[in-house]
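User: I'm curious whether this sequence folds into something compact or stays loose and floppy. Could you predict its structure so I can see for myself?
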Amino acid sequence: MKVVFIGGGNMATALISGLLEKGSSPSDLLVVDVAQEAREKFEVMQISTAPNFIDSDFNADVVVLAVKPQNLKEVVQSCASSLKTSLIISIAAGIPIASITQWLNGYSRIIRVMPNTPALIQAGVSGMYGDDMTAGDRELAENVMSCVGRHIWCETESLIDVVTAISGSGPAYVFYFIEALEAVGAELGLDRDAAGLLAVETFLGASRLAARSEESISVLRERVTSKGGTTAAALASFDADKLKDMIARGVRRARDRSEALAKEFGGEK
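Assistant: Here's the prediction. I'll summarize afterward.
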């Protein structure tokens, strides 16, 4: 499987590291990035690089569009003549397949993917969608994304915006909560490093427990919550402040922002 990455940022780095760990040869990978500094990072790994894709004769099975949404149109149009047979995987937030197809003059062998940053340690989760996938296209996309974690397939493209709001942005929500626990732990007298350790390891352990348990999340929560105990007091305070409603509003805002990116940078009306 020969793979081109257009854009050499963090997610491309994660995917490349995952592919190499799974046995891909550096000679089967190409990174296209205008920034020399980005290219040098991959050249150290014995991976070929190029400042643009037009001059490349690399016959790719898969082309991963790993650039920011605001740059995607320009990048896609600049290399449209070179993208004629490859499966295209776009990991740009918000930009629909229809826009990419239009920029590629009707080429529609495209799969849209929303990964997340735990992919950097091969612990990511991705949402995937394709309009007219063949079984071969689906397998190619899964071969790439499974190198950095797990994935789900969405039944409609609009659900990719929901995936973006839940798991794409989700690591920031977790970090936000960890920051809050660390801060209040320090405020209540713990050493800052100790508070941080307690917060991080609690999230890590609870997540592992949830992943391995056959019981529902609500049952796991109930088992920690003794009637009249400390946990019950904290959860009652959260409920009084309508924390779940606040979280839901934030996730909806993220979903709405993902949809808005299509209008800003995808050419949708």
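Summary: Residues 89 and 141 are 7 Å apart (CA to CA). Residues 3-155 form a domain with the Rossmann fold fold (CATH 3.40.50.720).
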